[in-house]
Design a protein that fits this description.
Elements: E1 3-8, H1 14-29, E2 32-34, H2 37-42, E3 59-64, H3 66-76, E4 83-87, H4 102-111, E5 119-130, E6 139-143, E7 146-151, E8 158-164, E9 167-174, E10 176-180, H5 188-191, E11 203-209, E12 219-222, E13 227-232, E14 237-241, E15 244-249, E16 254-268, H6 274-281
Length: 287
């Protein structure tokens, strides 16, 4: 028996039909399928609602786009359960399987051999730890794409002190700082003029957002290096993990970043063609 945890984009009308087809196939083979209560309710599939954690599954199915995949990664909370990303919508950087081939691909994963019939694409994640302060316990998060420290108030910059490996590097006057992984190099960091980095690398990217200073470059650090950011001044700073706001910081708050101990794992049925996807997404075809 194989156990499947399913997440679906709440605004994609194709998702319920796709899940129902999956359930019919799974029931015929004695397999289990479940969704979170919120996902099941959103798609009118309350019979699949369960509080069972995604980490109990053998495979997580993310039906949607890159946002749904990021949600799947956060739901797993570091558990090494592979994710099969199904492209229900527009072309994404992380999705691969087309809906019509979902069951076929699942069977291939179940019966095939890793390295021959499929590959496990392991992606580095970054961990952020907000330091304990005045009775508040330390808080930690992990991100597949990026952690963003950004201003709350329009029209005002914020000041952030950046240290690398315990040594002071610079004080940034900017709209924010992005600490990203190679996977996240195609997300917010790219729109802030950061570099494209192959997801096969393990690295930490630090990219300023609209810096008000002469030094405006993004940095690519080794994955083993540590990054420390301290809030300077009284202007509040928001923290977002893969696009989801998780905290607000005030003066003297400190966040430390480094490579997370766990990877996000994706089931692929061909060698990931990162450069081809970038070419399509950015419209770099032949003129």
């Amino acid at each position: 028996m194989t156990k499947f945890y399913v997440l679906g984009h709440h605004d994609r009308p194709e998702v319920p039909e796709l899940v129902n087809a999956l359930v019919r196939w799974a029931e015929g083979g004695g397999h289990e399928v479940w969704m979170s209560p919120s996902d099941a309710a959103a798609h009118g599939l309350k019979g699949l609602a369960s509080e069972r954690p995604a980490g109990e599954a053998n495979l997580v199915l993310a039906l949607g786009g890159d946002g749904t995949v990021l949600r799947a990664v956060q739901t797993l909370d570091g558990k090494a359960v592979p994710i099969m990303a199904v492209n229900v919508g527009t072309l994404g950087y992380l999705t691969e399987v087309v809906p019509d081939e979902l069951v076929k691909r699942i069977v291939k994963w179940m019966t095939g051999t890793e390295g021959k019939d499929f590959v496990l694409d392991r992606r580095m994640m970054v961990r952020a730890v907000l330091a304990e302060r005045e009775g508040r316990p330390a808080i930690s998060w992990r991100a597949l794409n990026e952690v963003v420290l950004e201003k709350q108030t329009s029209g005002h910059t914020i000041w952030l002190d950046l240290s690398i490996n315990g040594e002071s590097f610079a004080r940034y006057s900017a709209d924010g700082l992005i600490v990203a992984t190679p996977t996240g190099s195609t997300a917010y960091s790219l729109s802030a003029r950061g570099p494209l980095v192959s997801p096969r690398h393990r690295a930490i990217l630090v990219t300023p957002v609209s810096p008000h200073m002469l030094f405006d470059r993004s940095m690519v650090l080794d994955a083993s290096e540590s990054v420390h950011i301290r809030v300077v001044g009284t202007r509040p700073v928001d923290v977002a993990i893969d696009g989801r706001k998780v905290a607000s910081l005030t003066e003297h708050d400190e966040v430390t970043f480094g490579q997370d101990e766990s990877d996000a794992v994706f089931v692929r049925f061909q060698t990931p063609h990162f450069h081809s996807i970038v070419r399509q997404k950015l419209g770099l075809g032949d003129n």
